[in-house]
Design a protein that fits this description.
With 344 residues, the protein is an alpha/beta fold. The protein folds into two domains: 156 residues, Nucleotidyltransferase, domain 5; 171 residues, 2-Layer Sandwich (Nucleotidyltransferase, domain 5). A five-stranded mixed β-sheet has the order 3-2-1-4-5, sandwiched between helices. Strands 8-7-6-9-10 form a five-stranded mixed β-sheet, with helices on both faces. It is globular and about 70 Å long. The protein binds 5'-O-[(R)-(carboxyoxy)(hydroxy)phosphoryl]adenosine and zinc ion. 5'-O-[(R)-(carboxyoxy)(hydroxy)phosphoryl]adenosine binds next to α5 and α6.
Amino acid sequence: MKILGYESSCDETGVAVVCTEKGLLAHGLHSQIAMHRAYGGVVPELASRDHIRRVLPLTEQVLADAGLSLNDIDAVAYTAGPGLNGALLVGASFACSLAWARGLPTIPVHHLEGHLLSPLLADPAPEFPFVALLVSGGHTQIMQVDGVGQYKLLGETLDDAAGEAFDKSAKLLGLPYPGGPALSKLAEKGDVNRLQLPRPMLHSGDFDFSFSGLKTAVLTALRKMEKEQSSVTEQDKADIAAATQAAIVDVLAIKSLRALKQSGLKRLVVAGGVGANRLLRTHLVSEAEKMGATVYFPPIDLCTDNGAMIAFAAAMRIKHGIQNVEHRASFTVQPRWDLEDVAR
Ligand code: KG4
Ligand code: ZN
């Protein structure tokens, strides 16, 4: 069965074809980063309008890359939430209109389930069960995943997400949107030992996080330098960036490895945009190795939002008998939606 999948929950238009037997056949992505950069963050209305512009040409490109036509497609999947309402509606209405016109079934997909299962697109892929650290711009969660559709929340952020902490701290340092990659690049030139930023909730005894205090710590460090020095140099900013990244990575790594230890499992999966962070990757791999555990990541180009993970999650749900292949007469999107709602 060949599934055409759509992602449009935020600022990436993603389209992909996944075969339930052969896996990913082709995928295409248009990132709106350059467009939103001028505003320092995602402008929802602009995001929706750009999804409208990109979705049809991207569909044609992906079908051509896969050597397929619409006649070969058996079902259409789309991100139904969580995300920006207008952006979600563009992908959902396009996917459902296409499906109705072709007499095909539709499959609504939870965006985070897409991220969570995306490491299975890598080679080697992790086997179930595993512990997953889900770190994106909007979410930070530790889940125990026993199988497709079997998700147990172990802990989550009480305020800002890890990606949000990267983005907000980067903004304070005058870096362009999206802040995560920009901050980690600047951090490479920084002295990680110059400043020590707080590691919130490290000893809370649970697997929850809190990152909202970090931006205040970054601002305080900046103000202190402004007061004590004649000017804040690029090196100063790099030192703050290095300290910020170290604080975020430390908390994420310590808590997810503790969760892994408590679960008794030996596989940790990292998914979501922050999973592209190089320090997080190397740190987790070396720390997990000491516990005799293995860390799995999605292919690096599938860490941030993409259509492949949505078509793939739909394929996995069908393959495991969780999702019925239905012809639906209506559709809806859910800007707020807990992942546990799609667990069985
Ligand atoms: O999963 P994603 O593409 O979108 C959401 O579903 O939110 O994640 C985007 C987030 C942004 O906050 C971005 O700054 C962060 O992932 N990110 C990174 C890196 N690449 C993307 N954060 C740290 N280091 C990176 N290399
Ligand atoms: Zn995402």
